[in-house]
Amino acid sequence: MIKQNDEKCLPAIQKIGCFFRSSLLAVEYSTGKKFTSEDLNSLWNSAKFKGIISIDDDLMDSAKLMNLGLDRLCEPGYFAEIGLKVAGHIELYRWAENAGLVPDTFIRKMRQGGPNKYHYVLVDEKDKLIEDPHDPVIKDLGEVFTICYKRIIK
């Protein structure tokens, strides 16, 4: 899979695109399909145009980005952010709990020692690393929280 710091990716993706890339890695793992660097650059630009990525290059809504990715791959369903996990405990949002949803996708925000204070990675339900969007892997200095998602296909 293409890493965020791949030379074919836009400079913004290379520099600060770990949340962006982790979100789209989740789509790739869910569908079994892969994005090209051209897809990633186009999705970045589309997300900026739609306000999913701010003028300052902050990802504002990861689930919306994931859904743009599903659309790009012509895959059914949608991702919903359904809760947060902190210190091993999942706290579902009330609406998700009432709907009986169980998370199937997890993106961990972690502390790191590099120039950026935080880094995002794709993990499993037990917080085991599935994929780091950066090469080389960024050293994990502790969890901040993990965002829990559910892909819903009707």
The oligomerization state is: single chain
Instruction: Please tell me how large the radius of gyration is.
Output: 15 Å
- What is the mean predicted local confidence, pLDDT? 97
Domains, number: 1
Q: Care to count the β-strands?
A: 6
Distance between the termini: 28 Å
Report helical residue fraction. 25-40%
Number of helices: 5
> Can you tell me the overall shape?
globular
Q: What is the SS-derived class?
A: alpha+beta
The biggest beta sheet, please? 6 strands, antiparallel
> Helix-strand pattern, N to C?
HHHHEEHEEEE
Low-confidence stretches: none
Lateral arrangement of strands in the main beta sheet:
2-1-6-3-4-5
Strand-residue proportion: 25-35%
How would you characterize this protein structure?
This protein has 154 residues and is α+β, with helices and mostly antiparallel strands. It has helices spanning 11-16, 18-31, 37-49, 62-72, 94-98; strands at residues 78-86, 89-92, 105-111, 118-123, 129-131, 143-152. Strands 2-1-6-3-4-5 form a six-stranded antiparallel β-sheet. It is globular and about 45 Å long.
